[in-house]
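Recap slide: EAL domain-containing protein, sequence and predicted structure.
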Amino acid sequence: VAKREGGGRARSFERAMGEDVAARQRDQADLRAALTNEELVLHYQPIIDLAEARTTHAEALVRWRHPGRGLLGPDRFIGLAEETGLIVPLGAHVLRSACGQAVRWQRGGHPLGVAVNVSPWQLAGEAFPRQVDELLTTTGLEAGLLTVEVTESVWADEAAMRVLMDVRDLGVRIALDDFGTGYSSLNYLRRYPFDLVKIDKSFTDGLGEDDRTEGVVRCIIDLAAVLGARTVAEGVETPDQARWLRDAGCGYLQGYLFGRPDLPENWHPGLLTDPQRLPST
Ligand code: C2E
Ligand code: MG
Ligand code: MG
Ligand code: MG
C-alpha cells in the first residue's frame, strides 16, 4: 500500500511540476510580449526635499498593465524577470522611459530628478555604464537629475560594485534602497561612496512608536551625514513621522502623505508647483 501511495504521490508531483513549468513558460512568454506591446508603464512617486519644502525628485515604479489580470505591481513580476534574464531589457526600458519623463518635466518648466530601481543583474558585465552614458547624451538629460537605486544585495558582488561606481563617475547619483533590511555592512559603506541612503518603510513605521527604532533611525541619518550622503525616508504616511524625520535631520521624504505612485498626468498639479505642506512645528 505504501509503495502504491508513494507512486501515486510521485505521479501527482510530476503532474504538478509539469503544470508549474507550463505556467512559468506562459508567464515568461507573457512578460516578453508585455515588453514589446508596451504593457509596462511607469508610475511616479514624489520625493520631497525637506530643506526646500518642495518636490525635487520622483521615483519611477514599474507596473504591468496585464491584458487579462489588470494592473500588476512589481512584486508580481520582477522576480520572474530576474530569473529569466528579462530584467535586462525590462530595466533598459524603464531607464529610457524615466529619462524621457525627466526631460518632459524639464521642458515643462519643472526640472525634477528621476530615481530608477536597478537590479544587480543589470550590473553584470560592462554594458550598463555605457548604456546610461548614451541615454544621457541622446536625451540631453543632465546626469545629476538621474538617481540609480540599488539594494544592499549588490555588495555581494565586487564586479557589480565597480560597474556601479563607473555609473556614479558619470555624475549619476547612487541611492542605497531599503537600507538596513538586508545585508548592511559598515565595511562596504566605508569603502564605496553613495549619495543617498533610503531608510526603509519598516523603520519609518516605528517612529513615534518604538524607542529602539527611533535610535536606529537617528544613527542611520548621522552615519549618512558623516559619509557625505543624504537620507530619504520611505513610506512616510503621517505628519508626526514627517515632523520626527525633519527634526532628526533627514534630507528627503517619500510616502503616501505626499503622494502615491501614479501616472505623471494624474499627479495633483500642486505637487509640481507648490511648497509641500510640512508640519509647521
Ligand atoms: P522600493 O524601490 O523600495 O519602492 C518603494 C515601494 O513602497 C513602492 O512599492 C511604493 O509604492 C511603496 N510605497 C511608497 N510610499 C508608501 C507608503 O507611504 N506606504 C506604503 N504602504 N507603501 C509605500 P511598489 O511600487 O510596489 O514597488 C515595490 C518594489 O519593486 C520597489 O521597492 C522596488 O524594489 C521594485 N521595483 C519597482 N519598480 C522597479 C523597476 O523598474 N525595476 C526593478 N528592478 N525593481 C523595481
Ligand atoms: Mg526604490
Ligand atoms: Mg525601498
Ligand atoms: Mg523595496
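The pocket of C2E (ligand 1) is lined by residues 45, 61-62, 73-75, 78, 91, 94, 117, 119, 149, 177-178, 201, 234-237, 255-256, 261 (CB under 6 Å).
The two ends are 75 Å apart (CA to CA).
(End of recap.)
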